[in-house]
Amino acid sequence: MSKIQSLLDEYGASHQNATNKLIHWICVPLIFFSVVGLFYSLELPFKITETMNFNFAIVMLVAVMIYYFTLSRTLWIGMLLFSAVCMMVCYAINAAGLLVWLVSIVIFVLAWIAQFYGHHLEGKKPSFLRDVQFLLIGPAWIMSFVYKKLGITL
Length: 154
What we know:
Layout: H1 3-13, H2 18-40, E1 43-49, E2 52-55, H3 56-71, H4 73-95, H5 100-122, H6 134-150
Antiparallel strand pairs: 1-2
């Protein structure tokens, strides 16, 4: 069994309750987005374009993409695309005159409250309490279900 499949199976073991799974389907992408948004808000003194500064989200996502690439090149593509969407949404929020960091904090807090409620229903602790890498496996777990629906193998 591949390392990614082993990690996904281990993560899935504490996500069997239907309500908890639904909560994770919604909240895991929101948490990923909110973390990207928080890092997006930390700008570096370099410009990418006339209207966009280089920011820590780019640095963080490069590191995260390297991690996903080492686990599964197929899964990496989906996570890269989702990360690009997250960056575009951050850009749109900023362009609308809203504070990306504030929107991100609100989403982050609400999504984690829901996640812990889901784990309360499940009766199992979140996987990341055993191993911090499961904070990155959660989004991959969701993406693996999308891939399965599309008939794409990891």
